[in-house]
């Protein structure tokens, strides 16, 4: 959600902090602010809206400060106004704090502070923190070796919820304190300078040596080094790791938007997944699995049921996964919204694999649902014990610490808020898992598995064909929908989740009301919405339900709706049915989601770009949803 950046070192902090915020804009925000220690005082500047508003306020300033923190806020408590923007300060304006997350007990703390005469300037939950630190600092200065560290440590132990904070104090100009509890924060190590941030893109221009704080940890950063402590005050020994990231990956490389760049990166992502997940030499005569996920037999053997927990686009990937796991491996599979599962978990069943899917590995609802599942099975007998698996793009994330087994999705950093390549990578992970389980359970003939693998290997080139042949056409098509207010997306079987994903992409970045439905459900209510002003996008791939989907599309045609078909070019019946075709290559129906989602991503992108909207940072949205 919010973006946090901190710096302490030998350079002017403000430029580094602003550039760090720029690298975190993808997280979504509605205000921004910066605080530095200048001439023994906290110098704080905040602005409502986009980062350029803050930059305008700072323009012309000379600020040689070497220590500072900066923040982009995604509103949770209080409106997106300047007075609610971070950093927040204590009454004497000697302490500044930035936070990502939610302080769940802030109301009680706020009333407690008010009773002692504290005055609040914002509606946020964060503002209780600097006031509490100010109180504790006056006590810590009497005895503690590092008073600011001790004051922050005392305060974080009182906070309830998920949070990451960074703190500076005018009286301790050579210290920056960082703390983490359930919200991500990473430290960066340079030569005589150190950084902190919500995510690594803010650090990549300056250092590759990073260290993720774990839950219940604090860092005391000074110009000469970093010390890590537990919330209980114990000094910890931890070593940084080296990021294997090319700085070019976080640049647009000539594309107008990150989203378009990431759509074009999908052939490479699929190739990376094929290389990582599958044995390229495997054929039907081989007695070993063609899949090399490295998962232990203990979580895959004797499975009776699988449950998938996810949110948003990851939930749609989970729906594709459900189809694959049931149709290929023959394992009953359910897909749950993580936010619902937390409070209405499924009955306990034996030999059940629980899969958490989250691009960032930091999605609060998904992590909480997995933690609950882990906890409620922790004391149960053999067969009912927790079998947990994570699918994520970030191995070093909170998910990686929570569950013992991870499938990495190999998508690389995704900057655009609307997921594209990470969705395709998640679906590829489900293909690998489903094929592995299919082989283990012998639910399909080896020759059928070999045919499936051959089809998977064709996908990167087929995606490239769609991008090369259809993008310009879809860009022109988008002109027809400049004033459209509603869209319907239809699909059946394995392409129903793609209809949902297409509708979500359009909603997210163009702000057009869009709904995805199983094509056969149109006549059970949604058909009442149709008229000449409501386009209907239908995914119709040859296979088990092809004729049924075309019949459903005819129902929409009879209501004067404009029909757009995502379908192979040489299917005459489809050509006769749809007003507009977006052709895709012929492919086995079970592999088609990887191809059919590409035109829907492009359609959403070009409609939003045509409307002049901020495609990479759509309003009200955040890339990593780290609050409930």
Question: What would you say about this model in short?
Answer:
The protein has 628 residues and is of the alpha/beta class.
Number of strands: 25
Structural class: alpha/beta
Assess the beta-strand content as a share of residues: 15-25%
The proportion of residues forming helix, as a percent range, comes to: 25-40%
Mean pLDDT: 92
What is the 3D shape?
globular
- Main sheet: which strands, in order across? 3-2-4-1-10-9-11-15
SS element count, helices: 18
Uncertain segments: none
Radius of gyration from CA coordinates: 26 Å
Task: Provide structural commentary.
The chain has 628 residues and is α/β, with parallel strands linked by helices. Helices cover 35% and strands 22% of the residues. Strand 23, helix 16 (546-557) and strand 24 form a beta-alpha-beta unit. Helix 7 (266-277) runs parallel beside helix 13, helix 7 runs antiparallel to helix 14 (446-478) and helix 9 packs parallel to helix 13 (421-441). The longest helix is centred in the last third of the chain and has 33 residues, at 446-478. It is globular, with a radius of gyration of 26 Å. The relative contact order is 0.09. The mean pLDDT is 92.
